[in-house]
Lyase (Lithospermum erythrorhizon), 430 residues
Amino acid sequence: MDTHHLDNVTTTTSVDITSEFRHHDPTTARINNGSFGCCPASIMAAQQKWQMKFLKNPDRFYFNTLKPSILTTRHLIKSLVNADHVDEISIVDNATTAAAIVLSHVTCSFFNTTFKQGDVALILHHAYGAIKKSLNAYVSRAGGHVIEVPLPFPLKSNEEIVNEFKKALEMGRLNGRKIRLAVIDHVTSMPSVVIPVKELVQMCRNAGVDQVFVDGAHGIGCVDIDVKQIGADFYTSNLHKWFFCPPSVAFLYCRKGDNVSELHHPVVSHEYGNGLAIESSWIGTRDYSPQCVVPEVMEFLSRFEGGIDGVKKRNHEKVVEMAQMLVKAWGTSLGAPPQMCSSMAMVGLPPCLMITSDCDALMLRTRLRECFQVEVPIYYREPMEGDVHPITGYARISHQVYNTIDDYSRFRDAVNKLVNDGFTCSVFSK
C-alpha cells in the first residue's frame, strides 16, 4: 500500500485504498471530492451485479427485487440519521430533486391560498446555485418573496452567522409578513463552512417559521446528522458525495405529520398517490442500482476503524492539517476556523496572484488542472472597503480516504511556482 496515504487505513483493516481507487487518474492530484464524490472499485462491482439482475430478468427484478431492496436502503438511512420511522425516508436522485419535491409543495400552498402573496422564504446567500435558482423558480413565480441571508467571509465564529440570520428573520416579518420557509445549508458548498443548523432551526421555530428545509447535500459521510436533534421538517443529503455510492442517489427526510401525504415526486409514475417514498422508488425504467448498493457501502465502511464516524473524523482532521500546511507555506489564512470545517476547508491563496473576479478564479482553476494536474475549486472573494492587501482567492480543498500527502504537496508547489514565475491572473487574462 502507498505509504504516503494519510493514515486513512488502520493496521486492523483489510481495505486496500490503492486497489479500491485504482480507476482514479493517477496523474491528477484530486483534492475536490466535494464536487462529485468517489466510488470504490468494490462498490462499482456491486453496482454491476445489481444492473445485471435487472438486465437478466427485468420483470422479476421489478416485481420481486426492486422495492424490497430500496426499502432496505431506507431502513439503513433511517438508522444512520436517527429518523423515527422508515416512512420518513425517501430515496431520490440527488439533493436538487429533493428540493424540487419540497419547493413544489410550497408552491402549491401559495396557489391554494394557504400562503399569501408576498409571504417570505429565506435562503443563505452562499446556498448552492441550483437551490437558489429553484427557490426563485418555484416560490417567486408563485408570488412569494425571497430573502437571501448575507454571510460574511472569511468567518471567525458561528456567532457571525447567527447574527445575520437573526436580522433576516426580523426583516422577513416586517409589515406583518409571514416567513413560510427557511432553506438552510448544513455545509455550504462555496465557500465551504459548517453551518450551526440546530441553532438556526430553533431560531426559525421561535420566530414562527412554518417549514424548515435543510440542504445537507454534503452531509452524510461528512458531518454528523441526527434529524431529530436538528429538528427541521425536511433534510436531504447526497449519498454519492461523501458516502461512496455511485452517482446519483440521495435521501429526503420528511418529518412525519408535516403534510407528508401532500408531497409528490416531480416525475409522475404509476405509483403516484401511494406516498412519496413509494412514488420515488419507481419513476419509470431507469438504472436503480445506485439506490440498491447501500448495504455494500455499509460493508465497505465497516472495514475502517470506527466505520463511518471514524472516516468522518479522520477526513476532518487531515483536511485541517493539510489546510494549515498550505496557509503556512503561502503566508495566508484559513477562510474559517477548524471547528467550522467539515471534510473540506477554504485555504487562502497568495494575494499576488491578483484574483479579481469569478472569471479569474475559473481561469486559475483551469491552469492548475491543465499545467499542473491539480483539481481544486477556486473561490473569488470580493474585497471589502478598507481591506489592505486582501486575500481575494480561496481554494476549497477536500480530503477523502484516497488522498495522499503528495496531492497537497503538488498543489503547494504549483502555486509556489506560479508565484515565483510572477504569474498573475490579470496578465494571463489579457
The chain has 16 helices and twelve strands. Residues 6-14 have pLDDT under 50 and may be disordered.
